[in-house]
Structures are given as structure tokens and as C-alpha cells.
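Hey team,

Filing this mostly as a record. A colleague (T.K.) asked me to run one chain through the structure pipeline before their review meeting, and I want the input and output archived in the tracker in case anyone asks later how it was produced. No errors, nothing strange. Just documentation.

Input sequence:
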Amino acid sequence: MSEEIDENEAALLAAMSVDEKLDGYQTSFGEPLAEGAKKASKEEIIEAIRGVSDPEIPINVYDMGLIYNINQQANGDVAIDMTLTAPTCPVAGVLPAEVAKAVASIEGAGVVEVRLVFEPLWSIERLTDEAKAILDLF
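Output structure:
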């Protein structure tokens, strides 16, 4: 019995192979918005991202400081640069896809592309005050 591997899974497997780098791995979800459709606000996008948490740490990826850039295009498409706490993170292929799916699920988001980046490297200073309080870092 052969199982089909979707395009995103294939890209992840390639990125995780010895010959490829995880930096620059991209995944996307969603459909283009109809012309003239109302775009989601940046606050709505951030709130959707806050619905995604690292399964090993009870803090959402936005408050963890893993989201480096959110760029919404005039047509409603959203490009997000995110990082991980470490390049060897066991959920490297899961979190970017979860972020893309979460944002693509809100009204007014077109195609959502999430790209993994590792510059600058993530550090604990990127945590929001809320995340620091949860982790008792004050």
C-alpha cells in the first residue's frame, strides 16, 4: 500500500534531509480573496496566530516571539516569517503549517505563506511579558 505525500509534507521531508537546510522552508494555505473583499486586520491575524501553541511549551507562538514578520499584501495575501526556538525543534514542520492554517481560516485572509527563518536566532528576550509571566521569568 503506497501513501501519497502532499506537497507540504514533501517539502518538509526534503528540508529535513541531510542535503537540505530547514532555513527557508515554506508552507502555504488558503485561497485568493475575491476582488474587493474586505481584508482581515492585523489584529485578527495576530489573534489567529495566538491560537497556535508549541506542544512542548504552553505558550502560543506569537507570545513566544517566534513570529518575526507579518506582511499583508493589498490583495489580502499574508506572508509570515517565523522561527523556532532551535533549528532541531521536533515540531519544525508542524508549527509553520499550523500558523498558515490558522491565519488562512479567518475571514479576509487570502493565501497565507509561512517561511521559516533563523536569523536572527531566537532568544528568550523575544518572549512577551505575558509569556515571561507564564514561565515565571520575572
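Quick notes for T.K.: Helices lie at 7-16, 42-49, 94-104, 129-134. The first helix runs from residue 7 to 16.
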